[in-house]
Specification:
The chain is of the alpha+beta class. It is 39% helix and 12% strand. The strands form three sheets. It has a five-stranded antiparallel sheet with strand order 1-5-4-3-2, with no helix packed on it. The radius of gyration is 25 Å and the shape is flat.
Length: 401
């Protein structure tokens, strides 16, 4: 385990020792699996997670955050039409069977006397079902039970619809969590090395659930024998999986001089002083055989000043020179910031949010370990198991300033 990983484990152990000394470990009682097993829903955790994303992109503007609409949704407007209703179980969405909910999203609400636009040309069948799964996950058990009974009697929906390969026990655990944490994005429970304890993703964090679905532990799971933070390892794999989906064309890459011996991915903002400080040490990293891959993460959001400058970097014909200019290590002016490749700036921001980036620079090592904040090149090289070699010959590749 690298230097950064050891420091992370020691930090977490110290924090938890303090918490345990000060007070008892937080344990959240949940309904038992037996209580929830009869109320399993037709959708999967993956559908709910996907549905939250689709809803945020297409539906939140009309139906509101957490599908709660507005306080005046029962009051008609000047044209005698009612505003978009809430979808969280307090309005009439639960009156409609699954086929009607699907058709309404695909074909719009005009045929029913409403003005909801049709999304059939924008959303596929899977995305439509995912949206329904998400807002139904907000419904209280009693509301869902009535809706399900109507659909079940009509043969329209199964009582239990586990993900392929998902055990019914896992589905029951999910049902228990959804009941207690309505609206939260919940992943599928997976076994841990601890007998009877499952790991489950809740939002951006991970929690640990007893096999009877009653107790939920929040925090990091650490193997005291191997001194490994098992939660951090899972998060690291998740970061690597998400980064693997990013094309090199969406990055600004300062390649290693000669043979590549390691690489880091840095979420950066050109207006961030510590990002500029780190950028000044990129040549040291390159000369030691490290490739530095930049993703944009504008701290003030996609419309802030940092984002505007980074769009110009991503639009530049020579992105490496433009990054040097933007970070103050080379004289010059940035050019056009309006181009299709500049979309990578907003994409980098969304990716950073998805994996929990909270500030810049944020450095992801080759094993997925997240290093928040500035670290000198010597420490980064140590974390990668490398040493600086000032006598190393460069190859004259672009970016080895």
């Amino acid at each position: 385990m690298g230097e950064v990983g050891k420091l992370d484990t020691e930090r977490v152990l110290t924090r938890w020792k303090g918490l345990i000394t000060a007070s008892a470990l937080f344990i959240a009682p949940l309904h038992s699996v037996a209580e929830e097993a009869s109320g399993l829903r037709w959708y999967t955790a993956e559908q709910v997670e996907r549905g939250a994303e689709v809803y945020a992109q297409h539906c939140v503007g009309c139906h509101g955050a957490r599908a709660a609409a507005t306080a005046e949704w029962r009051k008609p407007d000047a044209d005698g039409r009612y505003p978009p209703p809430p979808l969280n179980g307090i309005a009439h969405a639960w009156h409609h069977p699954l086929p009607v909910l699907r058709r309404t999203i695909q074909q719009g609400g005009a045929r029913l006397g409403g003005r909801m636009p049709a999304f059939g040309d924008q959303l596929g069948t899977d995305e439509v079902d995912a949206v329904i799964a998400w807002f139904q996950s907000l419904w209280p058990s009693e509301i869902y039970a009535v809706w399900e009974q109507r659909n079940h009697e009509a043969g329209r929906v199964r009582s239990i619809h586990p993900h392929p390969g998902e055990k019914e026990t896992d589905s029951a655990l999910l049902a228990a969590l959804r009941r207690q944490l309505p609206g939260a994005t919940i992943g599928r429970p997976t076994p841990t090395p601890v007998p009877g304890i499952h790991q489950v993703r809740v939002g951006r964090d991970y929690a640990y659930l007893s096999k009877d679905g009653r107790y939920l532990f929040m925090g990091d799971l650490i193997d005291l024998v191997s001194q490994q933070n098992l939660t951090a390892r899972v998060k690291a794999r998740e970061r690597l999986n998400k980064l693997a989906e990013v094309s090199d064309t969406d990055l600004v890459i300062f390649p290693a001089d000669g043979e590549e011996r390691g690489k880091i991915t840095v979420f950066t903002d050109v207006t961030c002083p510590h990002c500029r400080r780190l950028h000044g040490e990129v040549p040291t990293l390159q000369s030691a055989g490290v490739t530095v891959r930049y993703l944009a993460f504008p701290r003030s959001g996609p419309q802030g000043p940092g984002a505007r400058q980074m769009r110009a970097v991503w639009c530049a014909e020579d992105r490496l020179a433009a990054m040097d200019i933007a970070k103050g290590v080379r004289a010059g002016k940035l050019g056009n910031s309006d181009c299709t490749t500049a979309e990578a700036v907003e994409q980098g921001y969304r990716l950073g949010q998805a994996i929990g980036i909270q500030g810049t620079p944020a450095i992801v090592l080759a094993d997925g370990t997240l290093v928040p904040g500035y670290r000198p090149a010597s420490r980064l090289l140590a974390a990668l198991g490398l040493t600086a070699d000032r006598n190393r010959q460069t190859t004259g590749k672009q970016g080895s300033r």
